[in-house]
């Protein structure tokens, strides 16, 4: 074998090896990636810059930007509430299962965001970590919550629960005096305050409570033993304070490490396809 022949063979082998390496390691095009993760995830053609809107509070009402807890990781946000009767627990359980199936779970931070701060503040992390120790919980004051919801296209609306509707219907069968007594027994009178204006309102009905919540009011604790009065945004001491459910978006929002909105994980939510879609997106769009 001549020297030139050896050189040609070496060159040929090197070329083939480089081509194979490039083929195996090349990242898919955006269109190919979209098709490969659908329908588990709907990928945006261009990531949406929303970082300036991702302002929340933690269980202690401390202001938190999402970047403070993601620490350079990808973030998966799930919007729900702790007293959700069925959908939220099921969804968070599926997210936990998907996380455990992922090869890149160490690159993803799951965050539960409550759309019911009046009842959930103080129990956010405990609720989230009950499904997975790595999960974290946040919320926002009503005005901030409306801002981030509008930016992200997240829908949530307070609705009367079926149980309450049945109770209210039953109450109408009683006399006026009996009806008033039932309302008194079923609702704790309290005060609510608008922190922006300082206005304090007496709340005697469920309807008034929900109306003030929509206007940004929070629970007000009037301590008669202290000259200082303090507004609090904590979970009511009685589970009877407010009977309502919250309709909300069932999609999960995926953000890249720069906290740009990259994709939505939509129904049906199944752990296997979700984990595969998340791994593909993180591998294809993540930094080397």
In short:
With 288 residues, the protein is α+β, with helices and mostly antiparallel strands.
**Main pleated sheet:** 6 strands, mixed
Order of secondary-structure elements: HHEEEHEHEHHEHEHHEEHEEEEEH
The proportion of residues in beta strands is 15-25%
Q: What form results from the Cα inertia axes?
A: elongated
Low-confidence stretches: 18-24, 162-187, 223-241
Number of domains: 2
Q: Could you name the CATH homologous superfamily of the largest domain? A: Glutaredoxin
User: What structural category characterises the helix and strand content?
Assistant: alpha+beta
Helix content: 40-55%
The tally of strands reads: 14
CATH class of the largest domain: Alpha Beta
Strand order, main sheet: write it out. Answer: 1-14-13-4-5-6
CATH topology of the largest domain: Glutaredoxin
- Number of helices, where a helix is a run of at least 4 consecutive DSSP H or I residues: 11
Nearest-integer average pLDDT: 78
Beginning-to-end CA distance, first to last residue:
42 Å
Descriptive overview:
With 288 residues, the protein is of the alpha+beta class. It has 2 domains: 30-159 and 246-285, Glutaredoxin, CATH 3.40.30; 172-243, no CATH class. The protein contains 11 helices and 14 strands. It has helices spanning 3-25, 30-37, 67-70, 87-101, 117-120, 124-129, 142-152, 162-171, 176-186, 206-214, 271-285, and strands at residues 41-49, 55-57, 63-65, 74-80, 108-114, 136-138, 156-159, 190-193, 200-203, 218-221, 230-231, 245-248, 252-255, 260-265. The strands form 4 sheets. Strands 1-14-13-4-5-6 form a 6-stranded mixed beta sheet. It has a 4-stranded antiparallel beta sheet with strand order 9-8-10-11, with helices on one face. It has a two-stranded antiparallel sheet with strand order 2-3. Helix 4 (87-101) packs across helix 11 (271-285). Residues 18-24, 162-187 and 223-241 have low confidence and may be disordered.
């Amino acid at each position: 074998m001549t020297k030139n022949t050896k050189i040609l063979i070496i060159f040929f082998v090197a070329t083939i090896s480089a081509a194979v390496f490039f083929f195996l390691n090349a990242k898919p095009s955006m269109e190919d990636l979209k098709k490969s993760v659908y329908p588990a995830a709907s990928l945006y053609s261009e990531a949406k810059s929303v970082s300036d809107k991702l302002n929340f509070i933690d269980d202690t009402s401390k202001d938190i930007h999402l970047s403070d807890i993601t620490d350079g990781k990808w973030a998966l946000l799930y919007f729900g509430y702790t007293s959700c009767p069925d959908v939220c627990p099921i969804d968070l359980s599926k997210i936990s299962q998907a996380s455990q199936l992922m090869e890149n779970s160490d690159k993803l931070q799951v965050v539960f965001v409550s759309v019911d701060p009046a009842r959930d503040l103080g129990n956010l992390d405990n609720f989230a970590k009950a499904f997975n120790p790595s999960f974290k919980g946040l919320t926002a004051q009503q005005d901030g919550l409306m801002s981030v919801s509008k930016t992200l296209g997240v829908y949530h609306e307070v609705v009367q629960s079926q149980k309450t509707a049945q109770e209210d219907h039953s109450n109408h069968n009683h006399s006026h005096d009996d009806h008033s007594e039932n309302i008194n027994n079923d609702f704790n009178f309290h005060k609510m305050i608008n922190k922006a204006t300082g206005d304090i309102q007496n709340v005697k009905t469920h309807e008034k409570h929900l109306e003030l919540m929509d206007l940004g009011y929070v629970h007000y604790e009037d301590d008669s033993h202290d000259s200082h009065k303090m507004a609090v945004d904590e979970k009511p001491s009685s589970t009877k304070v407010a009977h309502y459910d919250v309709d909300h978006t069932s999609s999960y929002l995926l953000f890249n490490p720069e906290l740009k909105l990259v994709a939505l994980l939509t129904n049906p939510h199944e752990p296997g396809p979700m984990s595969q879609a998340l791994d593909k997106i993180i591998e294809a769009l993540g930094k080397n």
